[in-house]
Amino acid sequence: MNNVSSIIPKILIVDDFIDNLRVLSQALDEQGFDVRCAKGGAMALNSLQTTKPDLILLDIKMPEMNGYEVCQRIQADTQTQSIPVVFMSALDDALDKVKAFEVGGVDYITKPFQIDEVLVRIRHQLSLQTAHQEIQHLNATLEHQVEQRTALLQMEMVERTQAEQRLKESEQRLDSILNALEEVVWSTTAPAAVSVIGEPDQTKVLYLNKAAARIYGRPLAELKRQPHYWLNLVHPQDRNRVVQEYARLAQKGSVRMRYRIVRLDSEIRWLKHRSQISYAPDGTAIRIDNTISDITVQQRIEAQLRHDALHDGLTGLPNRTLFMERIDQAIKHNQRHPEDLFAVLFIDLDRFKLVNDSLGHGVGDHLLITIGQRLQTCLRSADTLARLGGDEFTILLEDVQEMTEVIQLAERLLAELAHPLTLQGQTLVVGGSIGIVFNTSGHDTATMLLRDADIAMYRAKNQGKGRYAIFDQVMYDQTLKRLEIESDLRQAVEQSAFFLCYQPIFNIQSGQLYGFEALIRWQHPQKGLVSPADFIPTAEETGLIIPIGKWVLREACRQLRTWQVQFPEIPDLKLSVNLSGKQIQDPTLLTTIDQILAESGLDGSCLRLEITESMLMDSGEDSSHLLLQLRDRSILLSIDDFGTGYSCLSYLRRLPVNTLKVDRSFVDQMTQDVESYEIVRTVITLAHTLGMTVVAEGVETAAQIEALQDLDCEFAQGYFFAKPLQQQVVEAALERYQAQGQWIPGPVQCVSPAVTHLSSNQL
What we know:
Layout: E1 10-14, H1 18-30, E2 34-38, H2 41-48, E3 55-59, H3 67-76, E4 85-89, H4 94-102, E5 107-110, H5 115-152, H6 157-179, E6 184-189, E7 205-208, H7 211-216, H8 220-225, H9 230-233, H10 236-247, H11 249-252, E8 254-262, E9 268-279, E10 285-294, H12 296-310, H13 320-336, E11 341-349, H14 352-359, H15 361-377, E12 384-389, E13 392-400, H16 403-418, E14 421-423, E15 426-428, E16 432-438, H17 446-462, E17 468-470, H18 473-495, E18 498-507, E19 513-524, E20 528-530, H19 532-542, H20 545-566, E21 574-578, H21 581-585, H22 589-600, E22 607-612, H23 613-619, H24 621-632, E23 636-642, H25 649-653, E24 659-662, H26 664-669, H27 674-689, E25 693-696, H28 702-710, E26 715-716, H29 727-740
Parallel strand pairs: 1-2, 1-3, 3-4, 4-5, 16-17, 19-21, 21-22, 22-23, 23-24, 24-25, 25-26
Antiparallel strand pairs: 6-7, 6-10, 8-9, 9-10, 11-13, 11-16, 12-13, 14-15, 18-19, 18-26, 19-20
Helix pairs in contact: 2-3, 4-12, 5-6, 14-15, 18-19, 20-22, 23-24
């Protein structure tokens, strides 16, 4: 027998990074390996045509040919398919590892690698390779020994006895080696018939090592008596496939199979089986050699990797990948059966972020698990519930008879989401919004169906949350418009396409100019002037409101400070700037305000920030802390559109707010509608009781001015005085106001004749 282990192992390293080749080759060379390197798949395949290494270290991500393709080509070549391939890659996804084993890899090392780990895995694979080479060599030795037996008949008795003794010792060594292997080594005579699987009396067992008893759980004697008994142990679901594949052995010369067996103790195990025919010089099949390995642990790992790749790690529900596969299957079924109806539901929790931020991610995770369980109780076993990520869940409903079934389910789901639940001593109500799309929408891809369900969900959320919406074409058109606005907005932010207008605010008791409210405008290159109502909601949704809001605040403060210097005889001018909900939640807001005040030189007492009631309530205690910090900077605070939101008086009493702004919807009707008048009166009384001033918005008539004066309202703004004005118009009006003590906006913006209701000293 040749001493295979005495040969220096040859290692081929395939990687497109020179540093990896240098580090690995140096380390392996120091360990005594014969190392060669190839900088790419093509170079490696060319190298294999001249020299066969004992093992290949193969990178996956290479520019010309990736590692999977290189390995497949190695496996397809009968001259190289026996060379073990160990993958080395920075890809650590479960599916990448599964694919590595499927294309023929024997091991997988994740970069960045440890040299010690690489050496251990190389030696392990080389030892397995050496064992297989020993088996092949010993099989060849066995054939040679059979020939020796024939020759011994012609030898003299003494020589025959000595030769038989040497042969016996050799067979004992062979048997000792084979019995030490973990794999089953099983050799039988080849049947005389063409079919490989013959009758039991046509086939005899030539050799069977002890590993067979351990793997099959049967006595060796029983397995030796029945050469094809192993087929009876194959799992019933795999048996036909195995029989058909094994029957091809006569034509192919060798077969490889993976299948399950059922042992007597009912344990199911996975086996990897390779059978190969040995032929005599005349081409007659003389022997079938089988090597069988127990790969149960490997199969379980691969199955777990596949499960993890298709399921959410937190809730155990199907993830986006599996959900999209299920939708694709439903679409294909619907193409064969157009009359069948199915639906996709997109669910987003309404107050999950508030829970997650205030109570912590641990409670948030527990909440998601509980919500998933609750949703599952509303579904049939055939329905698919998935978690896409965050607080987004999706449902695939198949075999739907009527659309009303889906609507009724949506209502049950909303009721379940609105039901209080207790986590770690906290009673929580999160609620949710649901978007629904039916396969009747005409889409033939899972991506489009999920997109439309998402669009419908946002419509439900924008309509007030806690409800469902069914997708229609109008929603899609509106979404396209919103996407167009978003794209244009991003360009506008980059190109500074915004400018500010300023609407004056007057003290209607003294007639003095109090200040201005800064209002953003967008000059679109094609669409012209775009109303804030058309782009601010999109800016809020996309987060662009943060850079836009910073620009507004910086420009407004700079402009007010410029006017203060330019018109020193107009004292105490104030400037109001609106804050969005996203800005309130921005942790850098205070730092930004401090920087802007320092850059502009504006005193904080000249700045008034306007916030809506709903923003304050949605932000919770964080908003109270923010307002206190703003008050410490002498910044004035105003609640905008008061009366249209929550109007929580106990909450309002605790806030450091200076001003309430009465919404224009009440001011507009106060001289015609008693109820609106009473609301305005109540807001003014409440503000004064709490030590606040009041600004009335949308004032357009002298009658409204009179009524507000009678109610002791301090300030007002609206078209009665002026529309929002551009910088140049404001400056011209301020020049006249400083010189004459009278507010006249100028030729671009005329004063309403009703302004004569106020005396000249008031203007």
